[in-house]
Design a protein that fits this description.
The complex is a heterodimer of chains A (300) and B (306). Chain A is mainly α. Chain A has 16 helices and no strands. Chain A folds into two domains: 50 residues, no CATH class; 228 residues, MetI-like fold (Orthogonal Bundle). The longest helix of chain A has 30 residues. In chain B, helix 2 crosses helix 17, helix 5 crosses helix 9 and helix 12 runs antiparallel to helix 17. Chain B starts with a helix and ends with a helix. In chain B, 37% of the residues are buried. The chains are: A mainly alpha (300), B mainly alpha (306).
Chain lengths: 300, 306
């Protein structure tokens, strides 16, 4: 104990230096967490957090029993799992393919171009999607060759998931592959030499050497993705959807936005948001524990 | 491809093995070329469409290789749109000031977390990491901004994102990897923590700092949601809007009031959109190839488990 105090005293300066950081996390992360208690109140901005009346679980009951609950939960999970199942393997496959390229120059060109969409802002990305799948868009025009006559694809619920997932892959696959490429370059070449001696061809080398070597990276990335399941793309959804496709496109986080910031139902929307955050938190912990048990790879 | 490879292995390994590889190599190049073109084409389309004639473009809903007709009219309107340039100015402000705050805060936090012997390090690490997995959410965050009287000010776009925990981990990893004997000997010579951070660690971590400058900078450049919810729609709010919010009005809401709103504008509204995309995206896309190695380096540093 005495030693600890001595160390702190001696290093006073470093605690002063980290003070702005602590204040930042308190003001902009922990204070909003404290603000969650309005989910259990009928919050009135004029009376403040401490002065507003308590209502217990009323808002949660309203949400769970409400008309939209199952629709919102279903849409959120459907969108999440579609992006995860289709979107997640894409960068891995891309990295494996790039890694097999013999020509350094070609590999460089592929990488430079496929990383590019990552730098397009969300607003511009969504604007491009809206133009391309709009009634005069070239994707809509392309589909017209196959007998499609419905005009703007964004007005039809059945295209929502494909549009969302494909544009995600377009923007993220190249950039997402970097981390796997880094893991691939880290593989000891002696492992490949040994595999060759044992008569393994390139396919077998991929299965028995490459994939096991990048598995920890894949798992870490997967856990991090699981942690985003409930937070799936509200920015993109807000920029793309409209009332016509709410039945498939409206997700919990966009509902929170509309209820909270447009309808000003602060307490109710905070309750809905809390439900989302808690599920998300549980998912991360579960994913981490499962991975720790089965593969000995974990975030913490 | 893989199956072929395997079949050939079974019959006679040596000779046909290499043929299998050749088939694989060709297929691989074809697949990657196709994907690369798919990544590139949307950009190409936007550029070509922006130089097209609006009425011809609308009448031709197909993939195009070259402009349909030729017109630079749309760019004329875009360059004359005041809102875009106000937005540009604001965005540059947010990028420069925001990134400066980010780097300062990140260095301070990473310095503490990379010191070995300090009491309270574990507690602070948990305190910080916890925020990566749990947050107050959108509405408490919004009420907090109002409560702190930051609503509808420039600070609302800078302070809530003053530090990014993921970037902090990258910085900490870089600082931890520096030989401790360097800082220890400086300590013995009587150097304070500030001196060690600025005079020893910052110069040694220049490359990582460069990476984080780019990450933070791009994040500020592309950010729209905090401006969307933390700025008001009044005159003051409008004067603070970053480019992305102006873009949302023009591109997503198809609001032509910024570009003049007259009939002439309505007629070429489509190409104006494409020209607006080009004008707002070119700076980043033009810089990116030169900075690519820094961007990718950051991902790799981040990939090393903190």
């Amino acid at each position: 104990m005495k030693k600890t105090w001595k160390l702190i005293k001696k290093n006073k300066a470093v605690y002063l230096m980290v003070l702005p950081v602590i204040i930042y996390y308190i003001l902009f992360h922990y204070k909003p967490m404290y603000g969650i208690i309005i989910a259990f109140q009928d919050f009135n901005p004029r009376r403040g957090v401490l002065g507003s009346p308590w209502v217990g679980l009323k808002h949660f009951k309203d949400f769970f029993g409400g008309y939209y609950f199952w629709r919102l939960l279903g849409n959120t999970l459907r969108l999440s799992f579609a992006t995860l199942l289709i979107g997640f393997p894409f960068p891995i496959v891309l990295a494996l393919l790039i890694n097999e390229l013999r020509s350094k120059k070609f590999s460089k060109i592929v990488q430079t171009i496929t990383y590019m969409p990552h730098f397009v802002s969300m607003v511009v990305l969504c604007a491009m999607i809206r133009q391309f799948v709009g009634s005069d868009g070239f994707i809509t025009g392309f589909m017209a060759h196959f007998g499609y006559e419905g005009g703007n694809l964004l007005n039809h619920g059945e295209f929502w998931i494909p549009i969302y997932v494909i544009s995600n892959i377009w923007q993220g696959a190249g950039w997402g592959s970097i981390v796997y490429l880094a893991a691939l370059t880290g593989i000891d070449s002696e492992l490949y030499d040994a595999a060759k001696v044992d008569g393994a061809n390139r396919w077998k080398q991929t299965i028995h050497v490459t994939i096991p070597c990048i598995l920890p990276t894949i798992i870490i990335m997967l856990i991090m993705r699981v942690g985003q399941i409930m937070g799936v793309g509200y920015e993109k959804t807000i920029l793309l959807y409209d009332g016509a496709i709410y039945d498939v496109a409206d997700i919990i986080s966009t509902y929170v936005y509309r209820m909270g910031l447009q309808n000003r139902e602060f307490s109710f929307s905070t309750a809905v948001g809390l439900f989302n955050s808690v599920i998300n938190f549980i998912l991360v912990i579960l994913a981490n524990q499962i991975s720790k048990k089965t593969t000995e790879t974990s975030l913490w | 491809m893989a199956k072929k490879d395997k079949d050939m292995m079974d019959s006679s390994p040596k000779v046909k093995h290499s043929r299998g590889e050749n088939i694989f190599n060709v297929c691989n190049i074809i697949i990657l070329t196709a994907f690369t073109i798919a990544c590139l084409y949307p950009f190409w389309y936007v550029i070509m469409a922006s130089f097209s004639e609006s009425n011809l473009l609308i009448a031709h809903p197909e993939a195009i290789l070259w402009p349909v007709g030729w017109s630079t009219e749309a760019y004329k309107y875009v360059f004359e749109t005041k809102a875009i340039w106000t937005g540009y100015g604001n965005t540059i402000f947010y990028v420069v000031v925001g990134t400066a705050i980010n780097i300062f805060m990140t260095l301070l936090a990473a310095y503490f977390l990379s010191r070995k012997e300090l009491p309270g390090k574990t507690v602070l690490t948990i305190f910080i990491m916890f925020t990566m997995y749990f947050s107050g959410g959108m509405i408490p965050g919004f009420l907090n901004i109002q409560d702190l009287h930051l609503f509808n000010t420039r600070w609302a776009l800078l302070l809530p994102v003053a530090l990014n925990t993921y970037n902090l981990i990258i910085m900490r990893t870089a600082m931890s990897s520096i030989d401790a004997s360097l800082t220890e000997s400086a300590m013995l010579d009587g150097a304070g923590h500030m001196t060690i951070l600025w005079k020893i660690l910052v110069p040694l971590c220049k490359a990582t700092i460069a990476v984080l400058v780019l990450y933070y900078g791009v994040a500020h450049w592309n950010s729209w949601f905090s401006a969307f919810i933390y700025l008001d729609n009044d005159a003051k709010g409008k004067s603070l809007q970053p480019l992305q919010i102006v873009l949302r009005r023009i591109l997503i809401l198809s609001d032509t009031s910024d570009t003049g709103g007259g009939e002439d504008v309505q007629q070429i509204a489509e190409t104006i959109k494409y020209a607006t995309i080009i004008v707002s995206t070119v700076p980043i896309l033009a810089l990116y190839p030169f900075l690519q190695k820094y961007f990718t380096k950051g991902v790799m540093v981040g990939a090393v488990k903190g």
